[in-house]
Amino acid sequence: MNTNFRQSQRDFAAHLRHPDKYPAPAGIEDRRLQIYRDLIYRNIEGFISSAFPVMRSLYDDVAWQQLVRDFVDRHRCATPYFLQISAEFIDYLESERHSACADTGGPADPPFMLELARYEWAELALFVAEDVPPREPLDASRSLLDSALWLSPLAWSMIFSYPVHEIGPGNVPSAPAATPVCLVVYRNRHEQVNFLEINPVTARLLELLEQTGGASGRNLLNNVAAEMPQIEPQRVLDGGAQTLVQLYNLDIILTDHR
């Protein structure tokens, strides 16, 4: 490929990524360039806004445009698919956003922004996931304690420092929560994406279930009880049995794995 042509392509792409930072290539009518500038920015901005609506609501228009412009300019996406742009945006927030704020001298983003983005991304990822978990009625002769259990592939247990499920324009936390915020984001058999706030004990139960799919509910709860010697094992078993029913009814845990 001709070296000059390659450089022209790079200059053209750089201008489209950040028109205010890189001059337009010579010899191209600005009216035509504007079409490309609008297509690039509006498509990416529209998808990020729809994927992260709560985050978008926390920024004014100018600050949001600067954020998206920097993502388009700074980050090199590894995929051409629009549905995966949200994951690329998470990568940008994790590895490049701090440097971007330092370079521009602008105000720092809210300290919970990355956690909020991960939470919103999980909702989108589960909504478009292709998995369809089986759902068979529980055998009336058996209980969840005596059934082999699996964690649904459409249920993600997540732990945050901030109450990300409560954040919005009228509720912006200034400090992390006093205790870890444990959530399960899941998609049920009705194709609805929801979340459930759980306690650390239930979070540990789901972690064990993910590691040992096919274990009985009784064995899982006995393992949890062994890790909590300060609580009477029977209390863990009784409370855990009720929790298993709740998780099963929400399609977070399954008794059929095919």
Question: Which characteristics define this entry?
Answer:
three-stranded antiparallel β-sheet; 258 residues; mainly alpha
| Proportion in β-strands | 5-15%
Assign an overall shape: elongated
Q: Specify the biggest β-sheet.
A: 3 strands, antiparallel
Please state the CA-atom Rg, rounded to the nearest Å: 24 Å
Structural class: mainly alpha
What can you see in these coordinates?
This protein has 258 residues and is mainly alpha-helical. Helices cover 50% and strands 9% of the residues. The chain is built from ten helices and five strands, in the order αααααααββββαααβ. It is elongated. The termini are far apart. The mean pLDDT is 85.
List the helices and strands and how they pair.
Blueprint: H1 3-17, H2 30-51, H3 53-57, H4 61-74, H5 85-95, H6 97-104, H7 113-128, E1 150-151, E2 155-160, E3 181-187, E4 193-198, H8 200-211, H9 217-226, H10 233-249, E5 253-254
Antiparallel strand pairs: 1-5, 2-3, 3-4
Summarize the structure.
The protein is mainly α and 258 residues long. The chain contains 10 helices and 5 strands, in the order H-H-H-H-H-H-H-E-E-E-E-H-H-H-E.
